[in-house]
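Researcher: Good morning. I'm working through a list of sequences from a screen, and I'd like to move beyond sequence-only analysis. For each chain I'm collecting a predicted structure so we can compare shapes side by side. This is the next one on the list. No need for commentary yet; just the structure.
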Amino acid sequence: MFAPYLDRWSLISDGEPIITHSSRLLPVLWQKRPAMLKVATDIDERYGALLMQWWDGDGAAHVYAHEGEAVLLERATGKRSLLAMAMDGEDDEASRILCRTAARLHAPRQKPIPDPIPLSRWFRDLEPAAGRYGGTLADCSAVANALLADPRDLAVLHGDIHHGNILDFEARGWLAIDPKRLHGERGFDFANIFANEELPVITDPARFRRQLTIVSAEARLEPKRLLQWIAAYSGLSAAWFLGDPKIEQAETALTVARIALAELQI
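Model: Good morning. Structure tokens for this chain:
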């Protein structure tokens, strides 16, 4: 899988392959620079590379080369991790870094958008799941429908802003990888800060309320609107998990949704 691109782009292998559900990655050297060769096995990953090119290194990793399902990316070599920060007493600062990076990505560019997916299409799995399971999912679906019917502050979206997709690029700062190429209300991109299941404290209501204050201030979002997006996104996440099925992860997402919905009632 990697061999044709190693030859074509004059790359030198610089580590062990990394296999994910949607791509195959190999650390390499390109013109003596650390890079990451990524070969997508999922259509969304392929389209994400187009968005990475569109950002042109502003808020995201540079794209050095791109052909079909393969993309050669600038590689993060910094030692810092937002997930480690969030779990080691720097949760607030990690959230601020996520917000600042998202703001850079949302800034308008004077060039055509690479055929993005509208949020209405991204949410297409939520309503059927709400009809099947009811309860919290039905509440989340109603909130999502209201948001999608009245969009504000439209922007090109990353679609998967979380602690593992914003990496330390040392002198270049914190930069994004692995976008989903969406378009819609920018508030959507801040919801996932509250929904990263790798972070055990996401179901702690006290932590949730503290981060709500921090993220709404840093992102310049009305707290109520942010709560609505958190509920909508968490419902969508739960719907996806139930479809796999991954019951434990679905229940975590639903717990976050319930916290957001409860806050909306206060």
